[in-house]
Amino acid sequence: MGLFRKTAMKNFIQSLDTNKKSSMTPRIVTLVVTFLAILYFYPRVEDDNLYRFKVGQLWDHGDLVTQDSLVVPPDSVTIKMIEDSIRQHFVYVYTPVSAADFNVQATIDSVDSYLMQSLTTMSTDDIVNSLFTTRLSQLRDNIRHNLSKGYQGKVVQLGPNDDKPERIALTGNIRRFSDDITTTDELLEQIVNSVENQQLPVDVVTSSGVERFLRPNVILNKDISDERFNAEVGLETDARTRILAPGYCIVERGDLVTPQQGRIILMYTQQLIADGKVNQRSSLLTLLGQAIYILLLLSVLVLYTYMYAPRVWERNSNFIFIISLVGAFVVVSAIVSRFLVLGLYLMPIVIVPILVQVFFHARTALWTGVIVALLNAGMSATGLQYFAIQFVGIAAAVFSLRDLTKRSQLLQTSVLVGLAYIAMYVAFQFLTNGAVDSLMGRVVAVLAVNAVLTSVCYVLMSGVERLFGFVSNVTLVELTDVNNPLLRSLSDECPGTFNHVVAVSNLAYDAARQIGADALLTRAGAMYHDIGKLANPMFFTENQHGINPHDGLSPRQSAEIIISHVKEGLKRAEKAGLPQQIRDFISEHHGAGQAKYFYYTYCKQHPDEDVDATPFTYPGPNPRSRETSILMMADAVEAASRSLKEHTPQAIKDLVNKIIDGQIADGLHNDSPLSFHDITMIKEVFIRKLMTMYHSRIAYPDDPNKNRKSPVTSHSGQSSDNETEKR
User: Fold this and answer.
1) Which helix (H) or strand (E) holds 68?
2) Three-state DSSP class for 221?
3) Residues 362 and 516 sit within 8 Å (Cβ to Cβ)
4) Hey, how many other C-beta atoms are within 10 angstroms of the C-beta on 636?
5) Are 501 and 587 in contact (CB under 8 A)?
6) Euclidean distance between CA atoms 320 and 313, whole angstroms
7) Higher pLDDT, 207 or 480
8) How would you write 239-269 as a 3-class SS string?
9) Closest Cα partner for 213 from 140, 114, 118, 116?
10) How confident is the model at residue 45 (pLDDT cuts 50, 70, 90)?
11) pLDDT tens-digit readout, 416-465
């Protein structure tokens, strides 16, 4: 199922390039989705905050200095600590209950009556009758005595979670809890102890409602207590209140904003707004500014691809890849920055230009990286510093990968990026603060981790190749390895063809480099363009050894076998999983040309017949890129050069001009973007290379000393040296 989904996605992306009717629709949809996604995740600034900052992140707005005095009370955490500290030793105010509302004797009688009623209703099985009367009388006397003694003093009632205070204020005097001050809970405990002492069931008391009758004779005066408590808290709060004089620096540029500084910044901005010295921030205008900022940067990237990166602009898959890559990394950066301090500095956006350079051009990679850095800088409180650091990292990555041929180079790039990051951070801190103590080890560590994370592109590169059908230089170098199974089979089963493709790849590679085409792609395509000959090796001249199987076939049959090597090559390429770009070389290296030898032979054999050229014509298509056009030229020129009787400079020049001009006359390069200037340079490269390949060697005279006796080693060594020099 996973393979099916990957294949379906890949086919869908590649189909975007073939659907001409709606070629712009996928681009517009991608741009709109990317724009809305970035705008949605872009950080918002609170309406009452004039500055964009986050606690724990760097302050990048210059030194913030107060214009007027600013009163800074303690924060909520400090105030809570003050309240808890005062509450531990606070003296609560209590007031006696009036005689009209409370009668001691009535309370004692109610408890005695309720308790005796509960005890006398117990069954005789639980209480021994002979002891009951005595114990009950003693219990009643004991309880009444304890209650009378307790209510002679002061009885207070505490809540279930209240601690017993050390002191209380009563009738203007502060008194400690002692024998004459007790609680209703303590009275209940005395009753329980009395029941226990008489060996009566305690649950009679605990399960009954005795506590309902135990009322306090002094109660808490909540209003006066709260007033005094708040007064004490206010005094302590005022003592800790700071008054910042005009000119006080709240935070310096480059500092990490502490929670205390963040609170003061918000208070200061609110004061400025309240005094009318600045206008309150509009969230709507902020959103509008972000939308314009994002839209402008995306538009610049689109215009760049349109004007200076035709390879990206001309194919939907290429365009969608770059725009989606930019959007994905900006969105992830925004999410990471919400949850991690220095999250933006941790996000390895250098991966974006690395991936772009791997599959496209260094200039496009540098430009794309700059756009991503600018989009992320819009989310950073240290925008200028962030952009400066990312820019040198992007430049280091692009410059170090200008000749990417090995995957190990990506690890070297990570090291260079890390060094560039740290160097720019140190330089920027010295430039803006001029002090060593402004450097923060935490930032350096985050930048180092960022550089290490860039190695993730090693994995992403393979995923992008499979999903979008791109081919990196690393993959092209790996494909040209002669130990590749297909090339090994070609070398073993078709040695003549293998020598031919090697020679063609050398010709095509040099020509591609000369005109600025993709030389590595051209070399790789040339190495595989004739793998279809593996199906019938002996039917091709370079693999024959005195026996020509075409002698027993008609021209049409021979042409069918020769032409079929294109179809067979595509089958083998697809089975081996070769990229589409390599398969294009197989299908286009003959274009819609003819197998002219067999076509002309058939025409001579049937002079009176109106010959249909279709059976002698390759299926095509004609070359659609500079690289496949170069291969068509190199393939024909190298094959024809083997048939020259004399490889003189003039003969080689005439051959190259004849073959390439003939292809142009046949219209085989009409779909190719090659210019006349490109073709002229390609011809010059072919002529120069063929002259080198077929250079004449001088005839060596006979050795006049061959019959003389001389040291073998000395003579042999001298002969070898002379031969090398002459060559």
Assistant:
1) none
2) coil
3) no
4) 22
5) no
6) 9
7) 480
8) HHCEEECCCCEEECCCCECCHHHHHHHHHHH
9) 114
10) low
11) 999 999 999 999 888 877 778 778 788 899 999 999 988 888 788 888 88
Fill in the DSSP letter of residue 21.
T
Three-state SS at 563: helix
With vertex at residue 653, the alpha carbon angle to CA 650 and CA 655, rounded to the nearest 5 degrees, is 110
Q: In this structure, which amino acid lies at residue 668? A: L
Residue 264 burial by CB count (10 A; 0-12/13-18/19+): exposed, middle or buried?
Answer: buried
With 0-12 CB in 10 A as exposed, 13-18 as middle and 19+ as buried, what is 550?
Answer: buried
What is the distance between the alpha carbons of residues 553 and 340, in angstroms, rounded to a whole number?
Answer: 75
List all residues 6 or more positions away from 532 whose beta carbon is below 8 Å from its beta carbon: 564, 565, 566, 567, 568, 569, 570, 571, 572, 586
pLDDT given for residue 187 in this prediction: 79
In angstroms, the Cα distances linking 39 to 110, 180, 378 are 75, 72, 11
Q: Is 102 helix (H, G, I), strand (E, B) or coil?
A: coil
Record the tokens describing residue 435, joined without a space.
């002090």
Q: What does the block give as tokens for 82?
A: 């003050």
Letter string b/e over residues 172-200, b meaning 16 or more CB atoms within 10 A of that residue's CB: eeeeebeeebbbbebbbebbbebbeeeeb
- Pairing verdict, β 167-170 and 92-96: parallel
Question: What tokens were used for 344?
Answer: 């933006």
Sign of the dihedral defined by the CA atoms of residues 310, 314, 319, 321, in that order: negative
Closest CA to 261 of 47, 42, 44, 61: 61
Q: At residue 381, does pLDDT exceed 80?
A: no
Beta strand 181-183 pairing with 154-156: parallel
Phi, psi angle pair for 94, to nearest 5°:
-120, 150
Contacts for 631 with CB less than 8 Å, ≥ 6 apart = 504, 508, 522, 525, 526, 529, 585, 588, 589, 623
SS3 518: coil
d(C-alpha 348, C-alpha 446), whole Å: 10
Is residue 95 helix, strand or coil?
A: strand
* Residue found by looking up tokens 């051959």 in the block: 655
Q: How many residues does the chain have?
A: 727
Report pTM. 0.62
Instruction: Share the mean pLDDT of the chain.
Output: 81
The candidate with the shortest Cα–Cα distance to 700, out of 663, 675, 727, is 727
Distances in Å between the alpha carbon of 157 and those of 102, 205, 223, 261, 384? 14, 19, 17, 46, 65
